[in-house]
Amino acid sequence: MSTTTETRPRRALPQLMGLSDAAAERLRALYAGGEEGKTLRIAVKTKGCSGMAYDLSWVDGPGPGDEVVTDKGVTVVVDRKATLFLIGTVMDYEVKAMSAGFTFTNPNEKGRCGCGESFHV
């Protein structure tokens, strides 16, 4: 009697993060302008009434624990501690009547605070 151990094929991991066309276009403009030579770093910090908030900063390059994400030809880095909170997230850039900025559509969010500054998973 022989025993055969079959390995199941691994399914593809979901993309850590994606960029909308508007976010990619805005980042290209920022990278070509005042932030030339820098990379946007995305992290999640403990903050706000719901517990967590997105934290964006400019860095010279990825740190030792950062994940590099390239989508639509644009690269951002993600703090490794934030990856579990951001899997499947899409970053967008929205222009409204009185404001403009990056927004996040995160399938892991279970709720947001009333002011929209923080979220919880």
Automatic annotation (TrEMBL):
InterPro entries assigned to the protein according to its UniProt record, in alphabetical order: ATAP, ATAP_core_dom, Fe-S_cluster_asmbl/transfer, FeS_cluster_insertion_CS, HesB-like_dom_sf
Coiled coil: none
Superkingdom of origin organism: Bacteria
PROSITE patterns xref list: HESB
Pfam families, per database record: Fe-S_biosyn (PF01521)
Residue intervals of the Core domain: 19-117
Gene3D superfamilies with a match to the protein in the record: HesB-like domain
NCBIfam families xrefs: iron-sulfur cluster assembly accessory protein (TIGR00049)
Family according to the record: Belongs to the HesB/IscA family.
Protein name: Iron-sulfur cluster assembly accessory protein
UniProt organism field: Falsiroseomonas selenitidurans
